[in-house]
Design a protein that fits this description.
The protein is α/β, with parallel strands linked by helices and about 325 residues long. The protein contains 14 helices and nine strands. Helix 2 packs antiparallel against helix 11. About 45% of the residues are buried. This is C4-dicarboxylate ABC transporter.
């Protein structure tokens, strides 16, 4: 009888420990959503993030990647994070601007050139004040915002040499005002839709074109449904890894620190990898029959100057310029 009771105690104890471990593991699981394909050079940064977080936390945090928007559109995942779910998403500042306005300027036209320039902004003390404001405003936690995807260009079925050539063309954009106003200022008619719908929309003629960075063109096979890429570089696409503040706050402080540090490191891996891949991607697009054209961007810059004032970013623009010029 004593042995039986001892056995029962041991079995129940093991079961209790197993349940506790399972609960612990669930608390340390993070699902990361991205609209990008696994072939995108930025994805290598995400894979490095998974590996390095696992190593530094000794398996306490398990990160799982969901490419091609498998968890849904970015906006839906942001809402899940806002509700406290253990999810994260690679997202642009325009989508965060609905919660905290300052983030929108990161997607404003011709703000900075290349990764090294925009990195100064997203690692600055000024940017960290936006991070804290976002937490209070929406319950989102930025892990890092140095995930550079390249400069965005015009993708069409006809040659574009100046803003006037966009008159009457319906162009897909993300839904945030900074994107729609930029395309509108350049002369196009913006039509927000999920990036996953762009291929079919171009194929069916629902839209006349879109704008995107070169790696995304390849990732979505858009070279099959466009004929021209005009290198306007109108938006320097910097994105961030954003999760739930409630979930983040539930982690021990040391794990919070690791997540932010490894996200920043992985963002650099992703961004420099993207930069190094751009020339070969452009050549691949040319080999696939797409005409890739350099144009004088001055008329496009002049056409979009008013976007800052229209969206109320004039003063913030001066602060950002000061950082960029340091």
């Amino acid at each position: 009888m004593k042995i039986s009771r001892l056995t029962t105690f041991i079995v129940s104890g093991v079961a209790g420990m197993t349940m506790a471990m399972a609960a612990h593991a669930a608390d340390y699981t993070l699902s990361v959503n991205t609209a990008l394909a696994t072939t995108d050079p930025l994805y290598k940064g995400l894979e490095a993030f998974v590996k390095n977080v696992d190593e530094r936390t000794k398996g306490q945090i398990k990160v799982t990647l969901f490419p091609n928007s498998q968890l849904g559109p970015d906006e839906d995942v942001l809402e899940q994070a806002r509700a406290g779910a253990p999810v994260a998403v690679i997202v642009d500042g325009g989508r965060l601007a609905v919660f905290e306005k300052e983030f929108g300027i990161l997607g404003a036209p011709y703000l900075a050139q290349g990764y090294d320039g925009i990195r100064k902004v997203v690692t600055s003390d000024l940017f960290e004040t936006w991070v804290q404001k976002l937490r209070k405003a929406s319950g989102h936690q930025v892990l890092s915002f140095n995930w550079w995807q390249g400069e965005r260009h015009l993708l069409t079925k006809k040659p574009i040499t100046k803003p006037a050539d966009l008159n009457g063309l319906v162009l897909r954009t993300p839904g945030a005002p900074v994107w729609t106003e930029t395309v509108k200022a350049m002369g196009g008619t913006p039509t927000p839709m999920p990036f996953s719908d762009v291929y079919s929309a171009l194929q069916l003629g629902t839209i006349d074109g879109t704008e995107a960075q070169l790696p995304a063109v390849i990732g979505a096979n858009l070279q099959e449904v466009i004929t021209h890429i005009t290198k306007t570089g109108h938006i320097n696409l910097i994105t961030g890894l954003v999760t739930s503040a409630a979930w983040f706050d539930s982690l021990p402080k040391d794990l919070q620190k690791i997540l932010r540090e490894e996200s920043l490191k992985a963002g650099d891996i992703a961004s420099y990898g993207t930069r190094d891949a751009l020339a070969s991607i452009e050549q691949q697009l040319k080999d696939d029959g797409v005409e890739v054209s350099e144009v004088d961007t001055t008329p496009f810059k002049e056409a979009t100057q008013g976007v800052y004032e229209k969206l109320g970013y004039s003063e913030l623009h001066k602060q950002v310029d000061k950082i960029l010029n340091q």
